[in-house]
């Protein structure tokens, strides 16, 4: 086996997937059997700077190089060869957000991420104009808000893209974007597989008289569907990715995609009537629709699969950040006791405690709102834990409530799809770090959504593996073979999964928790109103 993998590496019969997640940059190299043969990671965090959530784009390059170097070293150590040839490459990242460049390719303003809830006015105006839901985090909402704010940088824009599109441009020079990620910049047309032309023209009419030297079509990346060739790694891109000089230029790249699209691929959920849940800093559920929804809902976004089919997306801005912060506190306690904690064990033990809890969480209440929450209407957030003297304050209940809170806002959006729109969901595939601990995340998610939840053996690999699969699909697909068929017949045909059905006791307990959660939203609002953001140390009085 090692010999055949080594041969595949030497001959370039591999695909590389690189994903820029909210807390981790990951590179995954797969062979032609879709098995991960090497990987590398780089941890990073967003910063709240001058009123915006952002990442320093210099760290994009630093993290990209660090993750690739770690992968490169793993190949050398495991197989005794230097990585020089790769069959195909794909880049993925957090969807949406706002990256704008001038004519020289320089950043005009710091990267404004999907996490910002600063575009309410623009999103509302565009939703009304298009009669199509424009979420606050979409690129077009950020652009229009900057226009409404009369921000001077707007006149200098020559290219607007997402993080995956930016990295792809650095590596290839091609201003390209996969249709799934593009559908989080601007609405797309399912038939034409391009931006919605009528809405493009509507937007340009909104800008008449402002004197900008561009039209919207001119500054957007070109849209590509899954399987298309979206450029080659140029020499500068090869040196950017691998400063050691070993990696050869000329490698084909697939269209860059967002984490929603790669999540669909990683869970085999691109066919109509399939769905998936992706858990991380945010949590979102996606369902490939048989027919369009009947109305415009504030809680439901319409995006696209990597092939361009319409998808109903329910996204909550906050999921695991507060849970991770509490586990970090337990880590500090270990260290204060003179112990060296194993973080995998710490996560496993603490999360598993949640399964021993009272079904409703013992009367405890948590809001993991590190940022604003679109589904419940919060422009800002304050992580909050509340209990009454009568609450059963145990470790098990404490952990269960924070697990419940991670899915609570998502549940509110899901009730519209399953209730008002009668979308039938047979089962959901799930992926993300929370599902690495056996049973726990699945059981809580199944209770929250009241449907069976399946986790595949690739769940821990997530979007980096998903974009590697899309890169592989580009070079290995049969003529006219759809992505859905490629996944079902080749990638997932022998892959084992584990399904957990909703436990009726958990379902009833979660329903009770949701009553407490919705009634307690004014408490969260009071925290936003009265608990100010931390000022700089020198400003504290």
A few lines on this structure:
Among the domains are: 267-318 and 412-500, Nucleotidyltransferase, domain 5 (2-Layer Sandwich), CATH 3.30.420.40; 321-370 and 383-402 and 504-529, no CATH class. Helices cover 39% and strands 17% of the residues. The protein has 18 helices and 22 strands.
Descriptive account of the structure:
The chain is an alpha/beta fold. 39% of the residues lie in helices and 17% in strands. The protein is built from 18 helices and 22 strands. Strands 16-17-15-14-20-21-22 form a 7-stranded mixed beta sheet, sandwiched between helices. A 5-stranded mixed beta sheet has the order 3-2-1-6-13. Strand 14 (275-279) and strand 15 form a beta hairpin. Helix 3 crosses helix 4 (139-148), helix 10 (259-266) packs across helix 15 and helix 14 crosses helix 17. The longest helix is centred in the C-terminal third of the chain and has 26 residues, at 395-420. The radius of gyration is 23 Å and the shape is globular. Belongs to the FGGY kinase family.
């Amino acid at each position: 086996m090692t010999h055949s993998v080594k041969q595949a590496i030497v001959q370039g019969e591999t695909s590389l997937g690189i994903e820029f997640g909210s807390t981790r940059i990951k590179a995954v190299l797969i062979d032609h059997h879709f098995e991960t043969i090497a990987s590398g990671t780089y941890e990073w965090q967003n910063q709240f700077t001058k009123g915006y959530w952002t990442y320093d784009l210099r760290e994009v390059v630093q993290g990209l190089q660090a993750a690739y170097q770690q992968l490169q070293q793993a190949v050398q150590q495991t197989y005794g060869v230097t990585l020089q040839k790769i069959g195909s490459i794909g880049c993925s990242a957090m969807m949406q957000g706002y990256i704008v460049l001038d004519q020289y390719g320089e950043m005009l303003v710091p990267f404004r991420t999907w996490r910002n809830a600063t575009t309410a006015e623009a999103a509302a105006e565009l939703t009304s104009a298009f009669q199509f839901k424009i979420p606050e985090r979409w690129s077009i909402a950020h652009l229009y808000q900057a226009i409404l704010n009369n921000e001077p940088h707007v006149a200098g824009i020559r290219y607007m893209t997402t993080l995956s599109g930016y990295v792809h441009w650095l590596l290839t020079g091609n201003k390209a974007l996969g249709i799934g990620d593009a559908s989080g910049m601007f609405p797309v047309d399912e038939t034409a597989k391009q931006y919605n032309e009528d809405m493009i023209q509507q937007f340009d009419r909104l800008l008449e008289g402002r004197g900008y030297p561009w039209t919207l079509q001119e500054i957007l990346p070109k849209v590509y569907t899954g399987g298309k060739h979206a450029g080659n790694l140029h020499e500068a891109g090869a040196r950017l990715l691998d400063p050691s000089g070993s990696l050869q230029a000329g490698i084909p790249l697939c269209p860059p995609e967002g984490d929603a699209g790669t999540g669909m691929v990683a869970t085999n959920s691109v066919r109509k009537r399939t769905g998936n849940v992706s858990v991380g800093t945010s949590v979102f559920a996606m369902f490939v629709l048989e027919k369009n929804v009947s109305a415009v809902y504030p809680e439901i976004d319409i995006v696209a699969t990597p092939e361009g089919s319409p998808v109903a997306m329910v996204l909550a801005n906050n999921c695991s950040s507060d849970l991770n912060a509490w586990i970090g506190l337990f880590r500090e306690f270990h260290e204060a006791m003179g112990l060296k904690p194993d973080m995998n064990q710490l996560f496993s033990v603490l999360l598993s405690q949640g399964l021993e809890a009272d079904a409703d969480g013992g009367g405890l209440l948590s809001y993991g709102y590190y940022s604003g929450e679109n589904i419940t209407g919060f422009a800002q957030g304050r992580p909050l834990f509340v209990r009454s003297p009568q609450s059963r304050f145990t470790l098990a209940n404490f952990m269960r409530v924070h697990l419940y809170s991670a899915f609570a806002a998502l549940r509110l959006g899901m009730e519209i799809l399953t209730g008002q729109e009668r979308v039938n969901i047979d089962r959901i595939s799930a992926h993300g770090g929370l599902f690495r601990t056996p049973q726990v995340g699945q059981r809580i998610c199944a209770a929250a959504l009241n449907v069976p939840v399946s986790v595949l053996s690739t769940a821990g690999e997530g979007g980096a593996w998903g974009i590697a699969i899309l890169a592989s699909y580009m070079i290995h697909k049969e003529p006219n073979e759809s992505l859905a068929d490629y996944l079902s017949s080749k990638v997932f045909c022998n892959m084992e999964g584990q399904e957990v059905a909703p436990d009726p006791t958990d379902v009833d307990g979660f329903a009770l928790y949701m009553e407490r959660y919705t009634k307690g939203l004014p408490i969260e609002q009071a925290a936003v109103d009265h608990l100010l953001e931390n000022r700089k140390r020198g400003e504290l009085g």
